[in-house]
Amino acid sequence: MSTPYVPLESTKIAADYQRDWAKGLRAQITSGAKYAFVNADTPHELFHHMGLPIVTNQWWSAIIAAKQLSEFYFDFMQAAGFHERLARYSSLPLIAELEGDATRQPWGGLPTPSILCARQSADDHQKVFSLWSEKTGAPLALISSPAVPDPQPDWWRLARDDWEALYRSDRLDLMVAEFEALIEQLEELTGTHFDRDTFALYMDRINEQERIYEKAAALIADAPQCPIRISEQIPNVMIPQWHRGSAWAIEHAQRFHDEVAARVAGRTGLVKNERIRMMWIGAGLWFDTGFYSAFEESHGAVFAWSMYLPFAADGYIRENKGDPLRALAARVSAMNEQLHQPPWINSWMVEQAKRFRIDVALMLIPEHDRFSGHGSLFAKQALEAAGIRVIEVWSDMVDQRQWNREEITARIVPELDDLLAEKV
Amino acid sequence: MTSLEAAVSAAAALERASKQQESYSNTASLPRIGVFGNGMPETLIAAAGALPVHVSVGTTEATHPITAVIEPFVDEQVRHFLIRLMNGDFAGLAGIVFARDDAPALIAYQYASEWIRQDREREATPPLFLWNLVHTGTRPAAEFNRTQAEKLFAFLGCAGLARPDDSKLAVAAGAEAERQEALGQLQIAVGVARSGRTAAAWRNAGRFMGAAEHASLLRSALAAPADVLNTTTRIGIVGSPLASPSTYAMIEQFGTVVCDQQNFGQMWPVPGNAKASLKDILAATAADPSCFRITPTSAYRAALVKNLLAARCSLVICQLAQTDDTFGWEIPALFTELAAHNVACINLGFRDAEPDAAWLEHASLTISRALEARK
Ligand code: SF4
Ligand code: SF4
Question: Please, which residues bridge with residue A139 across strands?
Answer without folding.
Answer: none
